[in-house]
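Consider the tokenized backbone below.
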């Protein structure tokens, strides 16, 4: 692993006294209809304390467990792990099935619960819309529940969301929805997570509201809640500096 600040190999004057500590491998898992752009600010600004790797397996399988296994197969032996929304479902699965490999865990704008019937129906409607070639319409219809109302007219943010959706594509979106709809109910299992855990949520997140975050904190001993003010569901993009600061503190504490 390349380490920032380390002297060149073979330098006869190198005594080892000034080695920088190894950076923690940090896996970042995007959510539904999202890709690496979701984590752009965090990836760019945490590299001094973490070896940042953004997962791209979250669109390729039809169950959360399959995605988790695929991510684990590519991951270092030990790593820090953060996931937002659907990424949080995957991160929880990884932390519960392979706890010896997850050094620390961050769960952003996510939930340990499963969808109520009305939400399952809504997901099926969106799948149908996507199959009819209207993925952009799907993305636009989700914006009011993904971001704070103050940002509905933020053209740069909404364009970034729509662009991510286009890159995920119809097939990836359908696989993601299938995985989400079949995800396990994790509330009874939260007590099994023992690693240092940070739970982040936007104060105005209406998709996975603060109550979901507080349930995670109640279930995971020693976990810390970070509430991001004036922020909706896509906290890493809506309030990137605040989220990055929270993750930095979680990584180095």
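A designed sequence for it:
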């Amino acid at each position: 692993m390349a380490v920032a600040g380390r002297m060149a190999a073979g330098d006869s004057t190198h005594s080892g006294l000034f080695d920088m500590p190894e950076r923690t491998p940090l896996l970042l898992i995007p959510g539904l209809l999202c890709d690496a752009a979701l984590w752009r600010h965090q990836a760019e600004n945490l590299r001094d304390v973490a070896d940042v790797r953004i997962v791209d397996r979250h669109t390729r399988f039809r169950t959360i467990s399959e995605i988790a296994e695929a991510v684990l197969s590519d991951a270092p032996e030990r790593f820090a792990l953060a996931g937002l929304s659907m990424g949080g479902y995957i991160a929880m699965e990884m932390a519960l099935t392979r706890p010896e490999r997850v050094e620390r865990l961050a769960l952003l704008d996510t939930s340990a619960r499963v969808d109520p019937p009305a939400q399952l129906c809504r997901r099926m409607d969106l799948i149908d819309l996507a199959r009819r070639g209207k993925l952009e319409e799907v993305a636009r219809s989700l914006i009011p529940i993904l971001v704070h109302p103050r940002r509905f007219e933020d053209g740069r943010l909404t364009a970034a969301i729509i662009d991510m959706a286009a890159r995920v594509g119809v097939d990836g979106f359908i696989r993601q929805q299938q995985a989400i709809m079949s995800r396990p109910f994790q509330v009874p299992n939260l007590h099994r997570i023992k690693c240092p855990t940070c739970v982040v949520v936007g104060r105005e997140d209406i998709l996975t509201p603060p109550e979901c975050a507080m349930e995670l904190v109640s279930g995971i001993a020693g976990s810390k809640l970070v509430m991001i003010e004036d922020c909706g569901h896509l906290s890493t993009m809506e309030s990137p500096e605040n989220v990055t600061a929270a993750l930095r503190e979680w990584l180095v504490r």
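DSSP finds nine helices and six strands in the chain.
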